[in-house]
Fold this sequence. Notes:
Layout: H1 37-63, E1 68-71, E2 81-82, E3 88-91, H2 92-100, H3 105-205, E4 225-226, E5 245-248, E6 254-256, E7 261-268, E8 274-280, E9 285-294, E10 299-301, E11 306-310, E12 320-327, E13 330-332, H4 334-340
Antiparallel strand pairs: 1-3, 2-3, 4-5, 5-12, 6-11, 7-8, 7-10, 8-9, 9-11, 9-12, 12-13
Amino acid sequence: MDVQExxxxxxxxxxxxxxDSARPLRGKHRxxxxxxxxxxxxxxxxxxxxxxxxxxxxATAQDRPQVAISMPDLLGGGGGHSDSGGDTxxxxxxxxxxxxxGTGTGVAGGAETAPTAQQxxxxxxxxxxxxxxxxxxxxxxxxxxxxxxxxxxAREAAAQEAKAQKExxxxxxxxxxxxxxxxxxxxxxxxxxAAAEQTATKAATxxxxxxxSAGGWSLPTSxxxxxxxxxxxxxxxxxxxxxxxxxxxxxxxxxxxxxxGKVISAGWSGAYGYRIVLKLDDGTEIWYxxxxxxxxxxxxxxxxxxxxxxxxxxxxxxxxxxxEVRKGGSTVDPLAWLGSKGLDV
Length: 345
């Protein structure tokens, strides 16, 4: 934009019309008019505004700190200071000086606008970087929070699973314990039942009654109860002690030969009541006393053969079989002797 040339101080002195300019028109009276007054006044006003704006710009530029601005040399190196890269470096102070020396309002405006745009761009970039950093920080925080929530959820799930497994294990252990107790109770019941059946069988037939051991031996009677053992001291026995083994049983219970032998004696024998003496093959004598009756009074018999019946004859207090075992004329413990033959009395 062209700037009108500012008149000098001398040009604005008092205007005096010349004789030619003040010459009256013929036939009429004319009022003289000053030429160019309004135009000159407009010029003065425009120049004043430009000067004020320029002065304000210069003052503003002078008040601001000088900032180095790199600008490309569009005019081929004209004006400004060129660095090693070939670009022209102009400062705000230089721009203000050029404006003050009349290089044109366009150049002054450019010098004034460039640092403002550069500073605005730097501020915008800094703000953008700060926003991006804040967003990244927030994203990292969100990720950390999500990771913490996932870990907490996993821990809670693991705790719940462990609790469920413990409860299941406890329940399984309780079930196993109940099953073991039930099995033990059933086993005990079965054992008791077997024992009861064995007792009933023993009561009916006698323990080992009628059966023979591997060597051919048999118990003397059945359905019995041992009452008096061998060697027990007492005044009721003439020798001062019990010389045999008593099998208490109901009257009429069968009495059997304990082994193969020969009946050598059968009849009444005082305190022994009715007695049968069986001599075995090895010479051992078996005495059956207090019999109610005698089935065999002589001859050979086999193990388990019935030879008489339980009774209460002689010196007794109740029905029972008094069994004596004599070897070489002396008595021995019948319980131990029967056990030596493999018989469970």
